[in-house]
Specification:
- By secondary structure, the chain is α+β, with helices and mostly antiparallel strands.
- It is 35% helix and 33% strand.
- A 7-stranded mixed beta sheet has the order 1-2-3-4-5-7-6, with helices on both faces.
């Protein structure tokens, strides 16, 4: 049985593994190896994830983990980007666990957190060409708003992100 809860220190290694493996599985066909590994080094290293698990506020609501028998099988995190606007910054699953409803459980639990903090709408950025994320979010009521450059592009890179939003 899957349990979704606010992540704790003992979940850090599992969050790192799920996010790193999920990121590689999601972007291996659309992004360079250099981009993927650079992003993983920046966002999914122990010190950063430890800080993001232990220090939360409205701008960063923390990580929430999907646990099965204490093992992390999925993770979500985000925060408020405005007084009434929540954003999902990260949502990844163990790549072998896709299609089991774990992502939906994470999204529902995290949406409840953001609504309790006053969010009336929710945003997410999805990389252009991410055919795992785009259908997932569209099926849950997110609608395309605009395209913009990806957050972690270097000068020679031109990866694009699609901004989606939904009313809560």
């Amino acid at each position: 049985m899957i349990v979704v809860k606010k992540a704790e220190i003992q979940h850090i290694e599992g969050i790192i593994k799920v996010c790193s493996d999920g990121y590689r599985a999601t972007y291996s066909d659309t992004h360079s190896h250099e981009y993927i590994e650079r992003t993983i080094r920046e966002f999914y290293q122990y010190e950063r994830v430890h800080k993001e698990v232990t220090h939360t506020n409205d701008e960063w609501n923390g990580y929430f983990a999907a646990l099965e028998g204490g093992k992390v099988v999925g993770a979500i995190g985000g925060g408020l980007i405005d007084q009434d606007k929540g954003e999902i910054f990260v949502l990844y699953l163990d790549p072998d666990r896709r299609g089991e409803g774990i992502g939906t459980q994470l999204l529902h639990a995290f949406t409840d957190v953001q609504k309790s903090k006053g969010a009336a709408e929710q945003w997410v950025s999805v990389s252009k060409g991410n055919m795992k994320g785009i259908p997932f979010y569209e099926a849950r009521g997110f609608r395309f708003v605009k395209e913009q450059g990806s957050f972690n592009n270097h000068e020679s890179e031109n990866y694009m992100s699609l901004r989606y939003r939904r009313a809560l």
